[in-house]
Amino acid sequence: MDDFLARALLGGVGVALAAGPLGAFIVWRRMAYFGDTLAHSGLLGIVLGTVLNLNLQLGVAITCLVVALVLVLLQRQRRLATDTLLGILAHTTLSLGLVALAFLETVRVDLTAYLFGDILAIGPIDLYWIWGGALLALGALAGLWRPLLAITVHEELAQVEGVPVFPVRLAFMLLVAIVIAVAMKVVGILLITSLLIIPAAAARRFARSPEGMALLASGLGCAAVGLGLWASLRWDTPAGPSVVLAAAFLFVLSSVVPGRSWR
Amino acid sequence: MTELLLTAENIGLTIRGNPILHNVNLRVAAGEIVALIGPNGAGKSTLVRVLLGLLRPDSGRVWSRPGLRIGYMPQRLALDGTLPLSVQRFVTLGTPAARARVQAVLAEVGAAHVLDSPVQAVSGGELQRVMLARALLREPDLLVLDEPIQGVDLNGQYELYDLIGGLRRTHGCGMLMVSHELHLVMATTDHVLCLNRHVCCSGHPDHVARDPAYLDLFGIDGARRLAVYHHHHNHHHDLHGAVVPDLPLSSASGGEGGHRPPVEQDRG
């Protein structure tokens, strides 16, 4: 196998492993649009990283986190619904990123690679970041699992039972920001949400416990990466979108195969 | 000797310019059952959220006995259908417990048969019992029940209130119960607070039922339904709708004024 292909596979699998359980929570908490908004702000993070000469993934993670905090602040006023706020934030930050990018005349930026991913260009350094970020996110999520599940089921009940709701929610946002930052290289900021929610949605019918659904989502994500890369080589299609299509294919397959649904 | 569990003094709260609570005082002592009644929009749930520390009041203060363990049964549970969660997992989310213990608590509230069902698949009445089981598993000093009979059919409501009334004996806990109907809570309650943004009247259920402020709030028709409350069935229905005979004790008292004959609601 070619080196670049092995790195692509390894990077994709790293992202898929972390995206599975996190994506399950995003589905349970109905936060798909939230993930999308954070991802949209990623481009701004690229510009920030370039200007400040930071690692780009670090730039993206920081920007995502700042946007998440801004959202939390905006939610305190209760005039506008959260999805409206998300719509405002998502497209404002994306446009801000595009405009800021135009000011960077000296820097040559491959916009398509950031928007739709460039999995075949994953280098050894990228792999460290991806796996470092993915393992960090998975480890933190494991520690956060129980209280996070409790506030997902009923936030006020969890609070009465002693769960520190706000810190847990904030930590979860941080994890989403990290995963978006590491997934950007694989599928790009416009497609990241799909890698979070499609495998989780596909896993739903076969899961009997939250943990089972999270693990299955990871597995299906890895399968989608493999399948997508294979298809991309076979038919010479763009790799990132091919991975997303493979995930969608698995989702369709999961909803038509005969199987015992728990409910 | 009554030890205080929770007190609230002069609670006032305004949300977006709307006064929701004004000068509300409340206390719950150990082993006491306090009912909070009032029409929709009276601020009952808001007051409960203030008492639980989920909402900060603009004025007044809430005190709870140090180390007080609260078992809370919220008004509703909006669980996303994509979350595969069994009743056992749901009940132990707040308090880790062995399967046998969960089974025992579920049996106590009459819901042992749903132990392994998905939470989304149980009926409204079963879900109320499951939420009650989760609150009981904490071995609370104080149970806070927000509209515990919501989504339960009429016969199930009486059964559930009997069950809740018995918990004081079996668990020795104090109780704060929210309801929008007095006649259902009367049998088991020590103290009633009639709330309509402020405390209209309070006291023993019999006293409140005759209070002009209560009659104003609920109207004569609403107050008359009190007569129904005292009636007894000679049987009741279990969760599956089967008839379960009561022990022979039915010397039904017709209520205080005897406004109406007891009504049998037999929908077997």
Note the gap between the termini of chain B.
Answer: 45 Å
In terms of DSSP E residues, the strand content of chain B is 25-35%
- Give me the number of helical elements of chain B: 9
Topology as H/E string of chain B? EEEHEEHHHEHEHEEHHHEE
How many distinct beta strands of chain B? 11
- Major sheet description of chain B: 6 strands, mixed
Q: Work out the largest interface and the residue count of each chain.
A: A-B, 29 and 28 residues
Family (chain A): Belongs to the ABC-3 integral membrane protein family.
Subcellular location (chain A): Cell membrane
Function (chain A): Involved in the high-affinity zinc uptake transport system.
Membrane topology (chain A): Multi-pass membrane protein
Which characteristics define this entry?
heterodimer, A: 263 residues, mainly alpha, ABC transporter involved in vitamin B12 uptake, BtuC, B: 268 residues, alpha/beta, Rossmann fold, 2 domains, 6-stranded mixed sheet, 25% strand
Explain what the structure shows:
The complex is a heterodimer of chains A (263) and B (268). Chain A is mostly helical and 263 residues long. Chain A has a single domain (3-192), classed as ABC transporter involved in vitamin B12 uptake, BtuC (Orthogonal Bundle), CATH 1.10.3470.10. Chain A is built from 12 helices and no strands. Chain A has helices at 3-28, 32-40, 42-52, 56-76, 82-103, 111-116, 124-153, 155-160, 165-187, 192-203, 210-235, 239-256. In chain A, helix 1 (3-28) runs antiparallel to helix 9 and helix 4 crosses helix 9. The longest helix of chain A is centred in the middle third of the chain and has 30 residues, at 124-153. By secondary structure, chain B is α/β, with parallel strands linked by helices. Chain B folds into 2 domains: 1-69 and 140-268, Rossmann fold (3-Layer(aba) Sandwich); 79-139, no CATH class. Chain B is 31% helix and 25% strand. Chain B contains 9 helices and 11 strands. In chain B, strand 8 (191-196) and strand 9 (198-203) form a beta hairpin. The longest helix of chain B has 18 residues, at 154-171. Chain B starts with a strand and ends in a 23-residue tail after the last strand. Mean pLDDT of chain B is 79; it is low at 226-234 and 247-268. At the A-B interface, helix 7, helix 8 and helix 11 of A face loops of B.
